[in-house]
């Protein structure tokens, strides 16, 4: 289930670093528009007092701790190893996130109950959320298979919950549009370039071990 000590430090750091590289543009945008938010985030990481304050905030606990841990445990550590022997790793990586996306449909009920928008807008928003949560689920499934650890997907999930979906439209209309869009492009380019090297199973002590009893992992997942 991806809970082990061997290779835990690179499994915690490298997938998170890779995800932060992908979010280079949004991080630049956050530092330009809301420097206090970025500063607060750094204070949480560096200051024990800030951590103590966050741990008493139920919304923070839900978004940054409980949801990432429970969702990755269910949809990656539990579901993925059960699907892989039946479908193969490739189909499992893209099937498992569909359940993950559907699991977020409860937001529709909440929005309809409180009449937060029109019915059409609510369902359009739900379809969009399903799409990007499914893509994110495929990414964390890939990380889980490549690293053999749960901690990387959990930390990446927590980071993405903090960042939210990139505000691409706002970036296109930003006063500093050119450097910002360059940051977006650079982040995506470096992410694609570093995706395989930073998830090499040899870095995590998982090369050749397979996943939960699946003896062969080929193609983009482990092999060159």
From TrEMBL:
TM ranges: 7-28, 89-109, 121-145, 151-172, 179-198
Protein name according to UniProt: CAAX prenyl protease 2
Source organism, top-level taxon: Eukaryota
Keywords from the UniProt entry: Endoplasmic reticulum, Hydrolase, Membrane, Protease, Transmembrane, Transmembrane helix
Compartment(s) where it occurs, according to its Swiss-Prot or TrEMBL record: Endoplasmic reticulum membrane
Listed GO biological process terms: CAAX-box protein processing
Recorded GO CC terms: endoplasmic reticulum membrane
Entries under Pfam families matching the protein: Rce1-like
Membrane-topology descriptor: Multi-pass membrane protein
Encoding gene, per UniProt annotation: RCE1
Organism: Oryctolagus cuniculus (Rabbit)
Assigned protein family: Belongs to the peptidase U48 family.
Recorded catalytic activity of this chain's protein: Hydrolyzes the peptide bond -P2-(S-farnesyl or geranylgeranyl)C-P1'-P2'-P3'-COOH where P1' and P2' are amino acids with aliphatic sidechains and P3' is any C-terminal residue
Keyword Protease annotated: yes
The keyword Transmembrane appears for this protein: yes
GO terms, molecular function: exopeptidase activity; metalloendopeptidase activity
